[in-house]
Amino acid sequence: MTTNHLPGTAVSVPPSRHHGIYILDPSKRCEPNAYLFTKTINFFLLNGYRITNDIHACSTILVNSCCVSEDKIASSMGALDLARPYAGQKQVILLGCLATLPTPRLNREQLICIGPKELDKLDALFPHMTAISDISAHQLHHELYEPGQGLDRGDYFILIAQGCNNSCSYCNIKRSKGGVASEPVTAVLYRVRQGLDLGVREFTLIADDCGSYGHDIGSDFVSLLQQIFALAPDFTVKLLYLYPEYLQRRFEEMAQLFGSGRISYVHLPVQSGSQRLLGLMNRSYAIEKVIENIRIIRSTGARTTFCTHILVNFPTETMADFFASLELVDEFDDVIMLHYSDNQETAAAMVYPKVTPQEAEERLAIAAQYVNRHKNGHGFVIKNFDCTLPYGPQALPNEG
Ligand code: SF4
Protein backbone atom coordinates (compact mmCIF):
# COMPACT_ATOMS: atom_id res chain seq x y z
CA MET A 1 0.00 0.00 0.00
CA THR A 2 1.34 3.47 -0.85
CA THR A 3 0.52 6.69 0.97
CA ASN A 4 2.78 9.31 -0.62
CA HIS A 5 1.57 12.31 -2.62
CA LEU A 6 2.86 13.70 -5.88
CA PRO A 7 5.46 16.38 -5.22
CA GLY A 8 4.40 19.95 -5.83
CA THR A 9 0.64 19.46 -5.49
CA ALA A 10 -1.22 21.94 -3.28
CA VAL A 11 -3.56 19.70 -1.30
CA SER A 12 -4.44 20.43 2.30
CA VAL A 13 -6.90 17.57 2.87
CA PRO A 14 -5.69 14.01 2.34
CA PRO A 15 -7.86 11.74 0.16
CA SER A 16 -10.39 9.90 2.23
CA ARG A 17 -12.23 6.70 1.43
CA HIS A 18 -14.94 7.87 3.84
CA HIS A 19 -15.50 11.31 2.31
CA GLY A 20 -15.37 9.88 -1.16
CA ILE A 21 -14.98 10.96 -4.74
CA TYR A 22 -17.16 13.41 -6.67
CA ILE A 23 -17.31 13.10 -10.48
CA LEU A 24 -17.74 15.74 -13.18
CA ASP A 25 -17.78 14.06 -16.59
CA PRO A 26 -18.53 16.17 -19.67
CA SER A 27 -16.83 13.60 -21.94
CA LYS A 28 -18.84 10.49 -22.72
CA ARG A 29 -18.62 9.98 -26.47
CA CYS A 30 -14.99 8.95 -26.87
CA GLU A 31 -14.27 5.25 -26.35
CA PRO A 32 -10.59 5.56 -25.31
CA ASN A 33 -11.56 8.29 -22.86
CA ALA A 34 -14.55 6.33 -21.46
CA TYR A 35 -12.31 3.27 -21.14
CA LEU A 36 -9.67 5.18 -19.16
CA PHE A 37 -12.25 6.88 -16.97
CA THR A 38 -14.01 3.58 -16.28
CA LYS A 39 -10.61 2.17 -15.31
CA THR A 40 -10.07 5.15 -12.99
CA ILE A 41 -13.47 4.74 -11.32
CA ASN A 42 -12.88 0.98 -10.98
CA PHE A 43 -9.58 1.80 -9.25
CA PHE A 44 -11.45 3.79 -6.61
CA LEU A 45 -14.30 1.30 -6.19
CA LEU A 46 -12.01 -1.72 -5.93
CA ASN A 47 -9.86 0.07 -3.37
CA GLY A 48 -12.78 0.90 -1.12
CA TYR A 49 -13.44 4.52 -2.03
CA ARG A 50 -16.96 5.83 -2.13
CA ILE A 51 -18.44 7.73 -5.08
CA THR A 52 -20.58 10.53 -3.67
CA ASN A 53 -23.15 12.90 -5.14
CA ASP A 54 -22.34 15.53 -2.53
CA ILE A 55 -19.59 17.85 -3.74
CA HIS A 56 -19.40 19.51 -0.31
CA ALA A 57 -18.75 16.25 1.49
CA CYS A 58 -16.17 14.72 -0.87
CA SER A 59 -12.40 14.91 -0.43
CA THR A 60 -11.56 14.55 -4.15
CA ILE A 61 -13.19 15.94 -7.29
CA LEU A 62 -12.46 14.21 -10.60
CA VAL A 63 -13.01 16.23 -13.77
CA ASN A 64 -12.87 14.06 -16.90
CA SER A 65 -12.03 16.26 -19.87
CA CYS A 66 -11.94 16.16 -23.67
CA CYS A 67 -10.04 18.41 -26.08
CA VAL A 68 -11.13 17.03 -29.45
CA SER A 69 -12.78 20.35 -30.35
CA GLU A 70 -13.19 23.82 -28.94
CA ASP A 71 -16.74 23.08 -27.76
CA LYS A 72 -15.48 20.05 -25.81
CA ILE A 73 -12.67 22.18 -24.36
CA ALA A 74 -15.31 24.74 -23.34
CA SER A 75 -17.52 22.15 -21.62
CA SER A 76 -14.44 20.65 -19.91
CA MET A 77 -13.38 24.12 -18.72
CA GLY A 78 -16.96 24.67 -17.53
CA ALA A 79 -16.80 21.51 -15.42
CA LEU A 80 -13.43 22.66 -14.10
CA ASP A 81 -14.94 26.01 -13.11
CA LEU A 82 -17.44 24.15 -10.91
CA ALA A 83 -14.59 22.32 -9.18
CA ARG A 84 -12.08 25.15 -8.82
CA PRO A 85 -13.69 26.93 -5.83
CA TYR A 86 -13.01 23.77 -3.80
CA ALA A 87 -9.30 23.52 -4.76
CA GLY A 88 -7.15 24.04 -1.68
CA GLN A 89 -9.70 22.27 0.54
CA LYS A 90 -10.08 19.22 -1.69
CA GLN A 91 -8.03 17.49 -4.34
CA VAL A 92 -9.19 18.61 -7.78
CA ILE A 93 -7.90 16.16 -10.40
CA LEU A 94 -8.14 16.93 -14.10
CA LEU A 95 -8.20 13.75 -16.17
CA GLY A 96 -8.58 13.22 -19.92
CA CYS A 97 -6.91 14.84 -22.92
CA LEU A 98 -7.18 18.45 -21.75
CA ALA A 99 -4.88 17.57 -18.83
CA THR A 100 -1.87 17.22 -21.13
CA LEU A 101 -2.88 19.54 -23.97
CA PRO A 102 -0.08 22.11 -24.32
CA THR A 103 -2.21 25.23 -24.12
CA PRO A 104 -1.65 28.48 -22.21
CA ARG A 105 -5.45 28.75 -21.82
CA LEU A 106 -5.55 26.17 -19.03
CA ASN A 107 -4.76 27.56 -15.59
CA ARG A 108 -3.18 24.57 -13.83
CA GLU A 109 -2.78 26.28 -10.46
CA GLN A 110 -4.00 24.06 -7.59
CA LEU A 111 -4.95 21.31 -10.06
CA ILE A 112 -3.52 17.84 -10.26
CA CYS A 113 -3.34 17.11 -13.99
CA ILE A 114 -3.23 13.43 -14.99
CA GLY A 115 -3.21 12.85 -18.74
CA PRO A 116 -4.47 9.74 -20.54
CA LYS A 117 -1.04 8.08 -20.51
CA GLU A 118 -0.38 8.98 -16.87
CA LEU A 119 -2.96 7.01 -14.86
CA ASP A 120 -0.11 5.41 -12.87
CA LYS A 121 0.07 8.71 -10.97
CA LEU A 122 -3.12 7.65 -9.15
CA ASP A 123 -1.10 4.99 -7.34
CA ALA A 124 1.08 7.66 -5.79
CA LEU A 125 -1.86 9.85 -4.79
CA PHE A 126 -4.25 7.32 -3.24
CA PRO A 127 -3.61 4.57 -0.71
CA HIS A 128 -4.55 1.36 -2.48
CA MET A 129 -4.39 -2.43 -2.39
CA THR A 130 -4.78 -2.85 -6.17
CA ALA A 131 -2.62 -0.74 -8.48
CA ILE A 132 -4.21 1.03 -11.45
CA SER A 133 -2.18 -1.13 -13.87
CA ASP A 134 -3.94 -4.23 -12.49
CA ILE A 135 -7.43 -2.80 -13.01
CA SER A 136 -9.46 -3.81 -16.06
CA ALA A 137 -12.23 -1.84 -17.75
CA HIS A 138 -13.63 -4.17 -20.39
CA GLN A 139 -17.24 -3.25 -19.62
CA LEU A 140 -17.64 0.51 -19.71
CA HIS A 141 -19.80 2.04 -16.99
CA HIS A 142 -23.10 2.99 -18.60
CA GLU A 143 -23.13 6.38 -16.88
CA LEU A 144 -19.72 7.22 -18.36
CA TYR A 145 -20.30 6.23 -21.97
CA GLU A 146 -22.69 7.24 -24.75
CA PRO A 147 -22.10 4.80 -27.61
CA GLY A 148 -22.66 5.53 -31.29
CA GLN A 149 -21.98 4.19 -34.79
CA GLY A 150 -22.32 0.44 -34.32
CA LEU A 151 -20.77 0.28 -30.87
CA ASP A 152 -22.68 -0.71 -27.80
CA ARG A 153 -22.47 -0.39 -24.03
CA GLY A 154 -22.32 -4.18 -23.89
CA ASP A 155 -19.16 -4.36 -26.04
CA TYR A 156 -16.07 -5.98 -24.53
CA PHE A 157 -13.39 -3.30 -24.89
CA ILE A 158 -9.64 -3.81 -24.99
CA LEU A 159 -7.40 -0.74 -25.23
CA ILE A 160 -4.38 -1.73 -27.32
CA ALA A 161 -2.57 1.61 -27.64
CA GLN A 162 -2.73 5.33 -27.01
CA GLY A 163 -1.30 8.17 -29.05
CA CYS A 164 -0.63 8.12 -32.75
CA ASN A 165 2.22 8.27 -35.25
CA ASN A 166 0.38 10.55 -37.67
CA SER A 167 0.27 14.35 -37.59
CA CYS A 168 -3.09 15.58 -38.82
CA SER A 169 -3.06 19.35 -38.98
CA TYR A 170 -6.27 19.85 -36.98
CA CYS A 171 -5.81 17.19 -34.30
CA ASN A 172 -5.66 17.96 -30.59
CA ILE A 173 -5.54 14.28 -29.62
CA LYS A 174 -2.04 13.97 -31.03
CA ARG A 175 -1.02 17.24 -29.36
CA SER A 176 -2.23 15.90 -26.03
CA LYS A 177 -1.14 12.28 -26.22
CA GLY A 178 1.91 12.42 -28.49
CA GLY A 179 3.32 9.36 -30.28
CA VAL A 180 1.97 5.86 -29.91
CA ALA A 181 2.40 3.92 -26.66
CA SER A 182 1.35 0.32 -27.27
CA GLU A 183 0.24 -2.26 -24.77
CA PRO A 184 2.61 -5.25 -24.90
CA VAL A 185 1.46 -8.00 -27.27
CA THR A 186 1.42 -10.47 -24.36
CA ALA A 187 -0.85 -8.16 -22.35
CA VAL A 188 -3.35 -7.83 -25.22
CA LEU A 189 -3.34 -11.59 -25.82
CA TYR A 190 -3.84 -12.18 -22.10
CA ARG A 191 -6.89 -9.91 -22.06
CA VAL A 192 -8.40 -11.63 -25.08
CA ARG A 193 -7.79 -15.04 -23.47
CA GLN A 194 -9.45 -13.78 -20.27
CA GLY A 195 -12.50 -12.74 -22.31
CA LEU A 196 -12.63 -16.04 -24.18
CA ASP A 197 -12.63 -17.87 -20.85
CA LEU A 198 -15.64 -15.74 -19.85
CA GLY A 199 -17.45 -16.70 -23.05
CA VAL A 200 -16.88 -13.43 -24.93
CA ARG A 201 -17.06 -13.94 -28.71
CA GLU A 202 -16.58 -10.38 -29.92
CA PHE A 203 -13.87 -7.97 -28.80
CA THR A 204 -13.71 -4.24 -29.52
CA LEU A 205 -10.06 -3.25 -29.95
CA ILE A 206 -9.62 0.48 -29.36
CA ALA A 207 -6.77 2.91 -30.03
CA ASP A 208 -6.46 6.45 -31.27
CA ASP A 209 -5.08 4.72 -34.35
CA CYS A 210 -4.86 0.91 -34.45
CA GLY A 211 -2.52 1.25 -37.45
CA SER A 212 0.10 2.92 -35.24
CA TYR A 213 0.07 -0.11 -32.93
CA GLY A 214 3.45 -1.67 -32.21
CA HIS A 215 5.66 1.02 -33.72
CA ASP A 216 7.23 1.65 -30.29
CA ILE A 217 7.65 -1.99 -29.28
CA GLY A 218 8.88 -3.66 -32.47
CA SER A 219 5.53 -5.08 -33.43
CA ASP A 220 2.71 -4.07 -35.78
CA PHE A 221 -1.05 -4.28 -36.04
CA VAL A 222 -1.24 -7.03 -38.66
CA SER A 223 0.97 -9.24 -36.53
CA LEU A 224 -1.13 -8.48 -33.42
CA LEU A 225 -4.37 -9.37 -35.21
CA GLN A 226 -2.89 -12.60 -36.56
CA GLN A 227 -1.82 -13.60 -33.04
CA ILE A 228 -5.21 -12.67 -31.60
CA PHE A 229 -7.07 -14.75 -34.19
CA ALA A 230 -4.72 -17.69 -33.57
CA LEU A 231 -6.04 -17.93 -29.98
CA ALA A 232 -9.35 -19.51 -31.06
CA PRO A 233 -11.31 -19.94 -34.30
CA ASP A 234 -14.73 -18.74 -33.22
CA PHE A 235 -14.71 -15.06 -32.32
CA THR A 236 -14.69 -11.70 -34.11
CA VAL A 237 -13.21 -8.26 -33.50
CA LYS A 238 -14.31 -4.68 -34.00
CA LEU A 239 -11.58 -2.13 -34.82
CA LEU A 240 -11.74 1.47 -33.65
CA TYR A 241 -10.03 3.52 -35.19
CA LEU A 242 -7.90 2.58 -38.23
CA TYR A 243 -6.11 5.38 -40.09
CA PRO A 244 -6.86 4.65 -43.79
CA GLU A 245 -3.21 4.86 -44.85
CA TYR A 246 -2.53 1.66 -42.88
CA LEU A 247 -5.16 -0.24 -44.84
CA GLN A 248 -3.52 1.01 -48.02
CA ARG A 249 0.04 0.20 -46.87
CA ARG A 250 -0.70 -3.32 -45.59
CA PHE A 251 -3.56 -4.06 -47.94
CA GLU A 252 -2.66 -7.62 -48.90
CA GLU A 253 -2.44 -8.86 -45.31
CA MET A 254 -5.37 -6.75 -44.13
CA ALA A 255 -7.55 -8.00 -47.01
CA GLN A 256 -6.83 -11.58 -45.92
CA LEU A 257 -7.80 -10.74 -42.35
CA PHE A 258 -11.03 -9.07 -43.50
CA GLY A 259 -11.66 -11.96 -45.88
CA SER A 260 -11.57 -14.37 -42.94
CA GLY A 261 -14.91 -12.88 -41.88
CA ARG A 262 -13.56 -12.20 -38.39
CA ILE A 263 -13.46 -8.40 -38.53
CA SER A 264 -17.09 -7.52 -37.93
CA TYR A 265 -16.59 -3.76 -37.77
CA VAL A 266 -13.99 -1.18 -38.68
CA HIS A 267 -13.99 2.55 -38.23
CA LEU A 268 -11.91 4.10 -41.02
CA PRO A 269 -12.04 7.88 -40.57
CA VAL A 270 -11.55 9.11 -44.16
CA GLN A 271 -12.37 12.76 -43.26
CA SER A 272 -12.66 14.07 -46.85
CA GLY A 273 -13.28 13.01 -50.43
CA SER A 274 -11.05 15.80 -51.69
CA GLN A 275 -7.40 14.86 -52.19
CA ARG A 276 -6.46 18.54 -51.96
CA LEU A 277 -8.13 18.89 -48.55
CA LEU A 278 -6.57 15.66 -47.32
CA GLY A 279 -3.22 17.27 -48.18
CA LEU A 280 -4.11 20.33 -46.08
CA MET A 281 -5.17 17.99 -43.28
CA ASN A 282 -1.73 16.33 -43.56
CA ARG A 283 -3.37 12.94 -44.13
CA SER A 284 -1.27 10.75 -46.37
CA TYR A 285 -3.50 8.41 -48.36
CA ALA A 286 -5.05 8.41 -51.79
CA ILE A 287 -8.78 8.53 -51.19
CA GLU A 288 -9.57 6.74 -54.46
CA LYS A 289 -7.29 3.87 -53.44
CA VAL A 290 -8.93 3.59 -50.03
CA ILE A 291 -12.38 3.34 -51.63
CA GLU A 292 -11.08 0.79 -54.14
CA ASN A 293 -9.67 -1.25 -51.23
CA ILE A 294 -13.00 -1.17 -49.39
CA ARG A 295 -14.79 -2.36 -52.52
CA ILE A 296 -12.31 -5.21 -52.98
CA ILE A 297 -12.76 -6.27 -49.35
CA ARG A 298 -16.55 -6.17 -49.72
CA SER A 299 -16.30 -8.29 -52.89
CA THR A 300 -14.58 -11.06 -50.91
CA GLY A 301 -17.78 -11.45 -48.91
CA ALA A 302 -16.25 -10.02 -45.74
CA ARG A 303 -19.02 -9.46 -43.20
CA THR A 304 -17.69 -6.12 -42.04
CA THR A 305 -19.56 -2.96 -41.10
CA PHE A 306 -17.56 -0.01 -42.43
CA CYS A 307 -17.96 3.27 -40.52
CA THR A 308 -16.40 6.64 -41.08
CA HIS A 309 -16.17 10.28 -40.06
CA ILE A 310 -16.16 13.05 -42.66
CA LEU A 311 -15.31 16.68 -41.89
CA VAL A 312 -17.43 19.34 -43.57
CA ASN A 313 -16.35 22.98 -43.94
CA PHE A 314 -12.59 22.50 -43.58
CA PRO A 315 -10.79 25.76 -44.46
CA THR A 316 -10.70 26.47 -48.23
CA GLU A 317 -13.35 23.77 -48.91
CA THR A 318 -15.13 24.48 -52.21
CA MET A 319 -18.49 23.11 -53.25
CA ALA A 320 -16.61 20.64 -55.48
CA ASP A 321 -14.62 19.44 -52.45
CA PHE A 322 -17.82 19.19 -50.43
CA PHE A 323 -19.59 17.11 -53.11
CA ALA A 324 -16.53 14.84 -53.38
CA SER A 325 -16.96 14.16 -49.65
CA LEU A 326 -20.69 13.63 -50.04
CA GLU A 327 -19.97 10.95 -52.65
CA LEU A 328 -18.16 8.92 -49.98
CA VAL A 329 -21.32 8.57 -47.92
CA ASP A 330 -22.60 5.70 -50.06
CA GLU A 331 -19.38 3.72 -49.63
CA PHE A 332 -19.91 3.26 -45.90
CA ASP A 333 -22.51 1.50 -43.80
CA ASP A 334 -22.53 4.23 -41.17
CA VAL A 335 -21.35 7.82 -41.53
CA ILE A 336 -20.97 10.79 -39.23
CA MET A 337 -20.44 14.09 -40.98
CA LEU A 338 -18.94 16.61 -38.59
CA HIS A 339 -18.87 20.36 -38.93
CA TYR A 340 -15.21 21.38 -38.84
CA SER A 341 -14.27 24.18 -36.48
CA ASP A 342 -10.78 25.45 -35.77
CA ASN A 343 -8.88 24.05 -32.84
CA GLN A 344 -6.81 26.98 -31.58
CA GLU A 345 -3.04 26.53 -31.74
CA THR A 346 -3.20 23.88 -34.50
CA ALA A 347 -1.73 24.22 -38.00
CA ALA A 348 -5.19 23.93 -39.57
CA ALA A 349 -6.37 27.00 -37.66
CA MET A 350 -3.87 29.00 -39.74
CA VAL A 351 -5.33 27.83 -43.07
CA TYR A 352 -7.37 30.46 -44.92
CA PRO A 353 -9.87 31.30 -46.26
CA LYS A 354 -12.41 29.82 -43.88
CA VAL A 355 -15.80 28.68 -45.13
CA THR A 356 -18.23 31.47 -44.28
CA PRO A 357 -20.87 30.73 -41.61
CA GLN A 358 -23.65 30.99 -44.20
CA GLU A 359 -21.95 28.58 -46.62
CA ALA A 360 -21.18 26.26 -43.74
CA GLU A 361 -24.85 26.14 -42.73
CA GLU A 362 -25.89 25.46 -46.32
CA ARG A 363 -23.46 22.55 -46.64
CA LEU A 364 -24.58 21.06 -43.34
CA ALA A 365 -28.19 21.32 -44.48
CA ILE A 366 -27.41 19.58 -47.80
CA ALA A 367 -25.40 16.92 -45.95
CA ALA A 368 -28.24 16.33 -43.45
CA GLN A 369 -30.78 15.98 -46.24
CA TYR A 370 -28.56 13.55 -48.14
CA VAL A 371 -27.64 11.46 -45.11
CA ASN A 372 -31.21 11.33 -43.80
CA ARG A 373 -32.50 10.15 -47.17
CA HIS A 374 -29.74 7.70 -48.06
CA LYS A 375 -28.51 6.16 -44.82
CA ASN A 376 -31.76 4.97 -43.36
CA GLY A 377 -30.82 5.91 -39.80
CA HIS A 378 -27.20 4.79 -40.18
CA GLY A 379 -25.68 8.20 -40.44
CA PHE A 380 -26.05 11.72 -39.22
CA VAL A 381 -24.66 15.20 -39.34
CA ILE A 382 -23.49 16.97 -36.22
CA LYS A 383 -22.43 20.52 -35.62
CA ASN A 384 -20.50 19.85 -32.44
CA PHE A 385 -19.61 17.09 -30.00
CA ASP A 386 -21.60 18.37 -27.06
CA CYS A 387 -22.93 15.41 -25.13
CA THR A 388 -26.24 17.08 -24.44
CA LEU A 389 -27.13 17.29 -28.14
CA PRO A 390 -29.17 14.57 -29.83
CA TYR A 391 -26.84 12.03 -31.34
CA GLY A 392 -28.92 10.67 -34.17
CA PRO A 393 -30.52 11.54 -37.49
CA GLN A 394 -31.63 15.11 -37.32
CA ALA A 395 -33.36 17.62 -39.51
CA LEU A 396 -31.66 20.96 -39.89
CA PRO A 397 -33.95 24.05 -40.05
CA ASN A 398 -34.67 23.91 -43.79
CA GLU A 399 -35.21 20.13 -43.81
CA GLY A 400 -38.82 19.19 -44.42
S1 SF4 B 1 -4.79 9.79 -37.14
FE1 SF4 B 1 -6.41 10.50 -35.73
S2 SF4 B 1 -5.41 10.64 -33.67
FE2 SF4 B 1 -3.78 10.49 -35.23
S3 SF4 B 1 -3.17 12.65 -35.66
FE3 SF4 B 1 -4.74 12.04 -37.20
S4 SF4 B 1 -6.74 12.65 -36.33
FE4 SF4 B 1 -5.22 12.66 -34.67
Structure description:
This protein is of the alpha/beta class and 400 residues long. The chain has 2 domains: 15-134, Rossmann fold (3-Layer(aba) Sandwich), CATH 3.40.50; 148-382, Alpha-Beta Horseshoe (pyruvate-formate lyase- activating enzyme), CATH 3.80.30. Helices cover 31% and strands 15% of the residues. The protein contains 12 helices and 13 strands. The chain has helices at 31-46, 70-83, 121-125, 172-177, 185-197, 221-229, 244-249, 251-259, 275-280, 287-299, 319-328, 357-374, and strands at residues 21-24, 60-65, 91-96, 112-114, 157-159, 161-162, 181-182, 202-206, 236-240, 263-267, 305-312, 334-339, 379-382. The strands form 3 sheets. Strands 5-8-9-10-11-12-13 form a 7-stranded parallel β-sheet, sandwiched between helices. A 4-stranded parallel β-sheet has the order 1-2-3-4, with helices on both faces. Strands 6-7 form a two-stranded antiparallel sheet. α8 packs parallel to α10 (287-299). It is globular and about 60 Å long. Mean pLDDT is 91; it is low at 1-13 and 387-400. The structure holds iron/sulfur cluster. Iron/sulfur cluster binds next to α4.
Task: Please summarize what this structure is.
By secondary structure, the chain is α/β, with parallel strands linked by helices. It is built from twelve helices and 13 strands. 31% of the residues lie in helices and 15% in strands.
Describe how the helices and strands are arranged:
Layout lengths: L20 E4 L6 H16 L13 E6 L4 H14 L7 E6 L15 E3 L6 H5 L31 E3 L1 E2 L9 H6 L3 E2 L2 H13 L4 E5 L14 H9 L6 E5 L3 H6 L1 H9 L3 E5 L7 H6 L6 H13 L5 E8 L6 H10 L5 E6 L17 H18 L4 E4 L18
